[in-house]
Design brief:
binds zinc ion, two-stranded antiparallel ribbon, 2 domains, about 350 residues, 7-stranded mixed beta sheet, alpha+beta, about 20% strand
């Protein structure tokens, strides 16, 4: 039996040899054999550890601790090497499967649809004014879509929005995102600032300015002492931001919506003719962008908000109209025809 010092020297020599073997190893199969060589039943380390019992208590502890330390060092070294060799195999497989000689000229990366780009532009702008984004169901009940917005069952204003009814007078694809006004006011107390973007559906014949499905954004502000000048100044600033043009004129024309009083149509100067009149603006010099107004007191009462304390304004429109004005496009249907010659003009690089 070797004395303690000689035995410890031999274990050190064994460790040094193991490290040389592992460093030289270039193959996972060889690494497995190295593992068996140093940790197998007949390995030097295993045999040494089985003989520790023959030493006295003090030597037993010293030899045992040193053997365990060496075992740990060799095991860690093997794990490190295993990781390196596995990565090498993986990289080799990738290199084998990729043909680096192939041309990359014809890869079409694609881009975000212009309507989505404009919706992002609109939501970013309103978020910067402290609006939060409200989203909700596209299939609505008649109450959320019409009745709560001051349009009873036989209200003539319903004719302004030809509706696809699923069950007569009950379930319908929403005709506007104004239903989100009601959903928000029922669950949130004022002050409220929301923007509800989304898809809406109307039973309309497709022509150059109409489609059975289109996108809308709906804004709602409810607070104490909100008034028409707030609405006008706010929308003027927001629209100029969206058009990135602070010279564009915005005008408010008196109009009628059952859920706002007073109500307005909001127009912008026709960029194409600079207000002189052309076929895009029907020789008016102005292009209609959206509708809005002060929230009707009855709408507030319908959602248990006291109109004597709170007022607010609401507005809504379509991103297509803003795109038409901003980019001087003459036909809304281009946005839905997926003609790449058209869509590529909006590609963001
Ligand atoms: Zn014009």
């Amino acid at each position: 039996m070797l004395d303690r010092k000689k035995l410890i020297n031999q274990i050190s020599t064994e460790r040094d040899q193991a490290i040389i073997d592992i460093d030289d190893c270039k193959d996972l199969e060889v690494l497995k054999k190295i593992h068996s060589k140093y940790f197998g039943k007949d390995s030097y380390l295993s045999k040494t550890i089985s003989q520790i019992k023959n030493y006295d208590k003090k030597d037993k502890i010293e030899i045992g601790q040193f053997s365990n330390k060496v075992k740990g060092e060799i095991q860690n070294k093997i794990k490190e090497k295993e990781l390196i060799l596995k990565n090498r195999v993986f990289l080799h497989e990738i290199e084998r499967d990729i043909d680096v000689t192939l041309s990359t000229n014809n890869i079409n990366i694609g881009s975000i649809h212009p309507i989505s780009q404009m919706m992002d532009n609109i939501t970013d702008n309103f978020k910067s004014f402290g609006f939060s984004i409200a989203s909700g169901p596209e299939i609505e009940t008649d109450w959320f879509c019409f009745q709560a917005l001051n349009m009873d069952i036989h209200h003539p204003a319903r004719d302004m929005q030809d509706t696809f009814y699923i069950e007569e007078n009950h379930i319908l694809p929403r005709t506007h995102t104004s239903s989100m006004q009601i959903r928000t006011m029922l669950k949130q107390k004022p002050p409220i600032r929301i923007l509800a973007p989304g898809k809406v559906y109307r039973n309309e014949n497709a022509d150059s300015r109409h489609s059975f499905m289109f996108y809308q954004y709906e804004g709602l502000v409810i607070d104490k002492s909100t008034n028409v000048s707030d609405l006008k100044s706010f929308l003027t600033i927001a629209l100029r931001n969206i058009f990135e043009n602070d010279k564009i004129e915005i005008r408010f024309r008196h109009s009628y919506f059952p859920y706002t009083e007073p109500s307005f149509e909001v127009d912008a100067t026709c960029i194409l003719c600079q207000g002189k009149g052309c076929n895009v603006c029907s020789n008016k010099g102005w292009i209609e962008l959206l509708g809005g107004g002060m929230v009707h007191p009855q709408v507030l009462r319908n959602v248990n908000i006291d109109p004597e304390i709170y007022q607010g304004f609401a507005f809504g429109g379509g991103p297509e109209r803003l795109l038409i004005v901003k980019n001087m496009i003459q036909d809304t249907r281009y946005f839905f025809e997926n003609d790449l010659r058209f869509l590529n003009q909006f590609k963001q690089i």
